Amino acid sequence: MNILVCITHVPDTTSRISFTDNNTKFDTSGVQFIIGPYDDYALARAVELKEANGGEVTVLNVGPADTEPTIRKALAIGADKAIRVNAEPVDSFYVAQQIAAVIKNGNYDLILMGRESIDFNGGMVHGMVGELLNLPAFSPVMKLEIEGDTAKMSREIEGGKEFIEAKLPFIAGCQEPIAEWKIPNMRGIMSARKKPLEVIEPTDSVKNTEVSSYELPPAKGDVKMISKDNVEELVKLLKEEAKVL
Amino acid sequence: MSQEELIAVRKSQKQDLFESPDFYAIDDLLEEEHKLVRSSLRDFVKKEISPSIEGWAQNNHFPSEIVKKFGEVGAFGPTVPEEYGGGGLDYISYGLIMQEIERGDSGMRSTASVQGSLVMYPIYKYGTEEQKRKFLPALANGDMLGCFGLTEPDHGSNPGGMVTNFKDKGDHYLLNGAKMWISNAPEADIAVVWAKNEEGRIHGLIVERGMEGFSTPTTHGKWSLRASCTGELVFDNVKVPKENLLPGRSGLGAPLSCLDSARYGIAWGALGAAMDCYDSAKRYALERKQFGKPIGSFQLVQKKLAEMLTEITKGQLVNWRLGKLMNEGKATTAQISLAKRNNVEVALNIAREARQIHGGMGITGEYPIMRHMANLESVVTYEGTHDIHLLILGMDITGIPAFE
User: Is the separation of the CB atoms in A89 and A36 below 8 Å?
Assistant: First the structure.
């Protein structure tokens, strides 16, 4: 089974976020980058499926050359080879078009990615890729088992859980507890050195968005603690101070 | 799950929020692969060691399941070539692995460095092809735990005076004697034992669990390295097959070469413990309030933190340079002594200062400080005492050995 896992290269969740160039660019100085945590779950599940069923895992990233350490980490975790589309991932639709082009040129039975990236949190790429290729897309997939050419999945929906069966190939946006994050071991890190990382140029694609400026969320205000027995005080404060009632 | 919730989950899974200081951008001197090695071991420690280490240490419990986990992540013998099950990594990577494990706990690092530098290293360096094939892969993947027997009850800083000996009995060697303060001994499957032959020359022998007359009594009552196991090795007419002799090198230089490799790892490891104390003290100084402001506002606390960071930064540079020399095969015993001695002392002083910043909280298991401090009290004298390393440097400077 050939699995494609699309990974994002995103700031670590503990990074301090700031902007440069008149708040039009994200300031990457001093920021540690990681594999998107949801993509990391997708990758872990892909490696497990490969170990159980055989086949090959390819990781794909749309990004400039400085994403390569993140791609190497994915190879160290257990992917067999990697493709980098040499382009800035400007928005969801642009990235989806690049991914779709790679899938068209490959022969993948299953395409996994995170339910969303954790930088821009669009959560749209899986659906867009499905639409571009006329393939089914599911998200957020929390369980994924493969039997022959059929997958059994479960998905969180409003007010409950949905159980799905689908024929391969399809696209899935993954989240925990689909698998546990894998820590690369030293032998994996060594072997990642020798695994192929192919760099391809982007296909001509539409860029629909342009960022005019970024701003940080307002700083957290002070917290007032009210004893659980003092509901009257709470209501009074909500009315008079917070003015939300 | 929102991003905030995700972060909260990540934090709750990893209460350990450790970040290493890098005041001189020493990361710029590292290769990407080194950083990946470090981040993998850091994640490993946060997942497998930090959540349980206080309990293990308080209960004087060696978690034997950690051996297999160390094997899986590749913490055993990372510099041994891949064909023998090792990682085939360089000495900077090896140092970073030791740094991260000791950042978790010195006892855990002891378990790993004994296996890698004192058991796998001599077998790889001085063993036969058969010995390498038989033992190295199992030691590397954690199926087997090893220990190293050099120190004796009456011979610590003077290992050349050892009395453990073996006699050639034709089809086997007969081994007699005892070793003391042996990390991993009670749980070990094999021991690399240094003993004198009938001519008084020191040789290495692989003694296997189950050989008649071989026992490994546990050392009880330790106040230090409580999560690792320590014991004795007792040899009472143990018949050791001739094929278990390490033929590649004899004389005191053979075990001392293994100690060079282990001491190099300790130089990195001790700095890991120092970084953990500094990281914890820094956070605590910003959270804890007295006189209406964080205690980090006060000059005397800032002085402590500033001095900690200064010593850590110097130690990082020493380690990096020594690692480069190790990679080139140029590092001398005296250079390694300088690094081991300096960095352990730095770590011990930082642990003591960090303890003061934490006040009463510093003596509890809520924070890692007291555990690191007690552990480092062993590290400062094992693998060559603080004083002996000073004399090794003294000999290097003057050409005159002061310990003979």
Answer: no
Q: Does B253-398 carry CATH code 1.20.140.10? A: yes
B305 to B33, B102, B277, B284: CA distances (angstroms): 30, 20, 10, 11
Average pLDDT over residues B155-183: 96
Q: Tell me which fold the domain A2-218 belongs to.
A: Rossmann fold (3.40.50)
Fold of B146-246: Butyryl-CoA Dehydrogenase, subunit A; domain 2 (2.40.110)
List chain B domain ranges: 21-140, 146-246, 253-398
Residue count of chain A, please give it: 245
* Residue ranges with strand state E in B291-391: 293-294
Min CA distance, B214 vs chain A (Å)?
34
Which among A61, A26, A23, A19 is positioned nearest to A40, based on CA atoms? A61
Task: For residues B149 and B157, give the distance between their C-alpha atoms in angstroms, rounded to a whole number.
Answer: 14
CB within 8 A of B184, min separation 6: which ones?
B110, B111, B114, B115, B145, B146, B147, B228, B229
CA distance A241 to A31: 38
Q: Give the residue extent of every domain in chain A.
A: 2-218
Q: Which residues contact B72 (CB under 8 A, 6 or more apart)?
A: A185, B141, B142
Options B48, B152, B232, B383, the catalytic residue: B383
CATH fold of the domain at B21-140: Butyryl-Coa Dehydrogenase, subunit A; domain 1 (1.10.540)
Segment-wise mean pLDDT, segments of 10 residues, chain A, 245 residues: 97 89 89 95 98 96 97 98 96 96 96 95 96 96 96 93 96 96 95 96 88 89 85 91 85
Q: Does residue B129 have an active-site annotation?
A: no
In a mutagenesis test of the B interface, which of A13, A31, A67, A186 is the best target, namely the one with the most B β-carbons within 10 Å? A186
Would you say A106 and A2 are in contact if contact means Cβ atoms under 8 Å apart? yes
Q: State pTM to two decimals.
A: 0.91
Q: Measured between beta carbons, which residues in chain A are less than 8 angstroms from residue B40?
A: 76, 183-186, 189
Distance CA A194, CA B242 (A): 41
Contact A14 B93 (CB under 8 A): no
pLDDT digits (tens, 9 = 90+) for B86-123: 989 999 999 999 999 999 999 999 999 999 999 999 99
The Cα B112–Cα B122 span in angstroms is 15
Interface of B with A (CB under 8 A): 1, 3, 6-7, 10, 17, 19, 32-33, 35-37, 39-40, 43-44, 47, 72-75, 78, 82, 87-89, 93, 97
- Which H or E run includes B13? helix B3-13
Could you please report the per-residue DSSP string of B252-300? Answer: THHHHHHHHHHHHHHHHHHHHHHHHHHHHHHHHHHH-EETTEEGGGSHH
* B176: helix, strand or coil: strand
